[in-house]
Amino acid sequence: MNTSISKIMKIDVEELQKRADMLKAMAHPTRIAMIEMLYQGKELTVTKIHNSLEIEQAVASNHLGILKSKDIVQCRREGKMVYYSLKVETVHNIIQCMLT
Question: In this structure, how many other beta carbons lie within 10 angstroms of the beta carbon of residue 14?
Fold first, then answer.
């Protein structure tokens, strides 16, 4: 985006880039399914996610890592278990807009 335009419109270009990166991270069928699962289940383990989606655990972990790197999901460790949840539940609204 032209910087003179962004100054006139008072657009935070860095914030727009962050949001665009979030949308890119969500733009995968497996990650969309994960967002839906986390919205419905609130907090799930990698094991529950990969078993439900019938994908390898490494694949699930990779996708969750991408979502985590863009602040879409968060995780917490409890012993050996890692629980994932949506960091920003409103991302679910974006998915719903696409499905309607």
Answer: 8
- Which two three-digit tokens encode residue 89? 């539940």
Ordered domains of the chain (ranges, CATH): 3-99 (1.10.10.10)
DSSP assignment letter at 85: E
What is the spatial distance between Cα 97 and Cα 34, in angstroms, rounded to a whole number? 16
26-80 pLDDT, tens digit per residue, is 999 999 999 999 998 889 999 999 999 999 999 999 999 999 999 999 999 999 9
Residue 7, C-beta contacts closer than 8 angstroms, at least 6 positions apart: none
| The two three-digit tokens of residue 45, written as one number | 């383990």
Distance CA 88, CA 91 (A): 6
